[in-house]
Amino acid sequence: MKLFPRAAACLSLLLAGTPCCAAPPGAARASATREGFVRDMLWEKLVAMPEGERPPVGVALSGGGARGFAHTGVLEALNYAGFPIDRISGTSMGSVIGGFYASGMTIDRIWDFGRRTSELKLDRDFGGFSLLKLLLTEQLISPKYITQVIEDNLGGRDFSGLKTPFACVAMDFRTGEKIVFYEGPLAIAVRASVNLPGIFAPVEYRHRYLVDGGVVDFIPIDAARSIGAEWVLASVTENSVDEMPSNVLLSLLQVIDIRGSILAEGQEKGADFVVKPRAGGIKVADFERCAEAGELGRAAARESMDAARNAYILRSAGALLERI
Amino acid sequence: MTARTALLLLLLAASPSEAFFWRKKADPAHEKLMKAAVARLDDGDCAGAVDSINSLLAMDPSREIKERAYYCLGKCHEALGAPDRAINTYRLAAALYPDNPLFPKALAELYLANGFYDKAADIYGPLAGKDPSSQQLNVGLARSYAGLGAFREAAASYAAARAAGAAGGAFLAEYARCLESMRDFKGAAALLREARAAAPSDAGLAREMARLASKSGDHYAAAVLADEACGPDCRDGEILFEKGIYLLLAGERSGALAALDAAAALLPGGDQALALVRGLALRGLGRPAESAAALEAASAGDSPFLAGLASAARGKK
Question: Is residue B158 a contact partner of residue B175, using CB atoms and an 8 Å limit?
């Protein structure tokens, strides 16, 4: 029988129904290049060094509302790569994810929030009755559901007892000052950081009226450095939504979001490495798309992981090469 | 009966029984055309087979013939290297024949092979849920998750495939790579040991075990495994290079240099990574002039990463 190889493969597929796929994707395998092999081996040597002997790594998580759930995927990819996360900081949704992570919550559990947003009713803080109340009574919204999630998971905890040192950013609504929290009760600080101005009522704390930090510090790189990070990886979820908002509330959200993205352009230069999940099409209040954002975050982090590891190895080369 | 006839009989009558649900007898003329298309496929004339099937479909044959025709058409497009057309064919057929599991399976395999891991997982997930004892579906799902970087989920699917009977060195090594990707080095090593027991002549497994041992911090064991992977009088420059790094990380600089020099004799000249690692070994051995020369060569290479490391090393006594 004379068969071309392709046809033979084709027929065998038809007959046996066996998988046609090539080598399994994604998983670890022998490095394709000698450079990759050197990186892999030095990397393990480096991350086995205690924090004091290598530059402490900080991860700064930007704002972005529902889009900010992309940080979960970024953190997961960093964990899989063995990236040491010695410090973490967050603004707005970044402070929620960062606070969860810093408290020792597993990545699996953080993912779970993204998959259960409907059950947790997070979208209700932005619509329906809340919106009606905002428009009719001109009273700002008290976000019941996001507060509940924060209280249930971070309530009663203090910054000092966290597994990973953490800082989050809010803004004083009266003065416009950036307020960085790194001590005291955790939940109220996170709640203040994720408190959209003009929509949610300011959080009154320490004689200040606090709103979302994303307006003044979209990527809290300095906050990470202020708690000891010497090498900062920023996870940035910028806005790229290109549509007219359909109501007053969404208009305000979009203005805040655009402001954050403009801030991000300048701020990201202060990071040692930037991961940018392509989640820009997910709007601030698209909470049903949180899991999708997380997956985009994981994909973006994986794509840039070799470059991130290279950058951190080079930053640590002095300390690392002393041990070889 | 010739092999070809046997293949055709299998294709046209027996093998699709799990999938094709014949409801009425097909038109003999259409059957003949279908056979002709398969014969062209059999002869390696996939383009001709596509033409035949398209002509057949234009004649509006019976549902059963169409069902087979779409499947063959999809496979022809695959064989012709037109995955987009194959995907469109399978998607259409899956919508037309929702009870036929071959179409979603073929679609999932194609998505997986072409890097659409999310789409593959979306199909494999429900299929594996319905048939948890299927090795093929669980492995497909595991590969889809691994492609997405969802290694925890991938590991669960590999475990399910294993529970369903998947075995053998290649499968175990693949499963091990997944565990390695989620930094479960101990679990990965255990699987690789099993894989090696199943395929003792596979030198690649010893090499993978070496890398894993070094990642786990046991650089000496890694060097021993590298020797096992290459055998006595090793003539594989790559493995010798890797062994050189293991020995360097283990603090055995003389041994590292010997392995690296042996690698240098086998690999193309001017390799930047090799120059860097040799430079580090020479530096550790207190041979500054030779080290400086090697590191200088590494600093001038194309890779900014390796050049940066070489420059950093040159800055150190």
Answer: yes
- Which positions ≥6 away from B201 have C-beta within 8 Å? none
ipTM: 0.86
A6: helix, strand or coil = helix
> How many beta carbons lie within 10 A of that of residue B132, not counting itself?
12
Of B42, B136, B241, the CB nearest to A34: B241
pLDDT of residue A30: 45
Q: What is the pTM of this model?
A: 0.87
Residue A251's pLDDT is what?
Answer: 82
Chain A residues lying within 8 Å of B209, measured CB to CB = none
Residues in chain A: 324
**Is the Cβ of A262 closer than 8 Å to some Cβ of chain B?**
no
Chain A contact probe: residue of B40, B153, B211 with most A CBs at under 10 A: B211
B-contacting residues in A 90-129 (Cβ below 8 Å): 108
Q: What is the pLDDT of residues A248-305, one digit of tens each?
A: 777 888 888 888 888 888 899 999 999 999 998 888 888 899 999 999 999 999 999 9
- From A293's Cα to the closest Cα of chain B, the distance in A is 13
Measure the CA–CA gap between A78 and A256, rounded to whole angstroms. 29
Is A299 an interface residue toward B (CB < 8 Å)?
Answer: yes
What per-residue confidence (pLDDT) applies to B43? 86
State which H helix or E strand residue A314 sits in: helix A305-315
Cα-only R_g, chain B: 27
State how far residue B118 is from chain A, nearest Cα, in angstroms: 9
